[in-house]
Design brief:
carbohydrate metabolism, 3-stranded antiparallel beta sheet, Coagulation Factor XIII, Chain A, domain 1, disulfide bond, alpha+beta, 7-stranded mixed beta sheet, EC 1.14.99.56, 5 helices, binds copper (II) ion, elongated
């Protein structure tokens, strides 16, 4: 009983920390869990906006094999589902294309255009709005698209570390779509990397814990594109991917398939094992959790410097979830004591500073301490 409690609380804390894009629906029909999506090898964020990883996550210049390209039509409703996230910030969607073969496109370079954005609405960040909808978000593919294959990039930007340059965390997942459209080009288009700068006002927010008003926040990447322009959406020439070896295969066979609940529970043991062995204890303060972690990228340890839950951030209280994914109940404290990986201190922190027995409240920076 005691063991079970320990495992489940570690699991909840871990799942609520980092996040991945796992599933999408086209007009309410899904190709399946982690089907049609390039799953990254971990759920750690990209923090270097100048790296190729900012396009479609780690191994940016390598395309994975075994990822299906899913049919859609312009104007279709796309629903995405992410892991539970208590990291405040926006969600954006971009398309890259048309390309001859989405499965071979890295997405690195020019040819992206923004099609959807949800920032801060009615006092609530996009991540919390999604929490209230079982971590889903819906938008429509634009009309006036050239028929062809595209990468659909879903990005959740976590701003809980944005008070330092390079502290914002970009969670990115790319899906492969074959879109039937009526023709037309979209603009403005942007390059990734290229469009983001670590010092941009929507990425580096020095006063985010000190009087920042997110009401007028807009996510990076510029305005939402207008489609249907003349110029028929000429196909983007894509660079030859560097490798498609078995080392980067993330086929569905390597992925845990089951209901969301089943997958999350079964990933617990993996997460516990990994966090105790291969993750650098110096910089990584939350377990990397994923059922499909073949290796921890070297960038994971160094980039994961702000972690876990920031319940006091400018969000309204998160409504009770209707979904199946377990999640923490706000502060993560059980009564007056704070659970592992949850916030216990920092400037402007008004919650409990007492960790559960056996844990120590450890400062990560001036703004954030957590129980470890
Ligand atoms: Cu995280």
């Amino acid at each position: 009983m005691f063991t079970k409690t320990l495992i489940s609380s570690a699991f909840v804390a871990a799942v609520s920390a980092h996040q991945n894009f796992h599933q999408f629906w086209v007009n309410d029909v899904t190709p399946g869990y982690q089907v049609g999506i390039r799953m990254p090898p971990s759920n750690s964020p990209v923090t270097d906006v100048t790296s190729n990883d900012i396009a479609c996550n780690v191994d940016g210049s390598t395309v994975p094999s075994g990822v299906e390209t899913v049919d859609a039509s312009e104007g279709d409703t796309i629903k995405v589902q992410w892991d539970s996230s208590s990291h405040p910030g926006p969600i954006t969607h971009m398309l890259f294309g048309p390309v001859d073969d989405a499965s071979q496109a890295t997405g690195i370079g020019a040819g992206w255009f923004k099609i959807d954005e949800l920032d801060y609405d009615n006092g609530t960040w996009a991540n919390a709005i999604m929490e209230a909808a079982n971590m889903t978000h819906e938008f429509a593919l634009p009309t006036g698209l050239a028929s062809g294959e595209y990468l659909l990039r879903s990005e959740m930007l976590a701003l809980h570390g944005a008070q330092t340059v390079g502290g914002a965390q970009f969670y990115i997942g790319c899906a492969q779509l074959k879109i039937t459209g009526s023709g037309g080009s979209c603009g403005p288009s942007i390059s990734l990397p290229g469009a983001y700068d670590a010092n941009d006002a929507d990425i580096y927010i020095p006063n985010i814990y000190n009087g920042y008003d997110p009401s007028n926040y807009t996510a990076p990447g510029g305005p939402i594109a207008t489609c249907g322009g003349s110029g028929n959406g000429s196909t983007i020439a894509t660079a030859t991917p560097t490798a498609t070896s078995s080392a980067v295969i993330r086929s569905s066979t390597a992925v845990v398939s089951a209901s969301l609940n089943d997958t999350l529970v079964s990933s617990t043991a993996v997460a516990v094992a990994i966090s105790s062995s291969s993750v650098s204890p110096a910089n990584t303060t939350e377990p990397i959790t994923s059922a499909i972690v073949p290796s921890i990228p070297t960038s994971a340890a160094s980039s994961t410097f702000i972690t876990a839950i920031v319940p006091s951030f400018n969000t309204t209280s998160i409504p009770a979830a209707s979904g199946t994914a377990p999640r923490p109940s706000g502060t993560g404290s059980a009564g007056a004591t704070v659970r592992k990986y949850y916030q216990c201190g920092g400037l402007a922190w008004t919650g409990s500073t007492t960790c559960e027995s056996g844990l120590t409240c450890t400062a990560q920076n001036d703004y954030y301490s957590q129980c470890l």
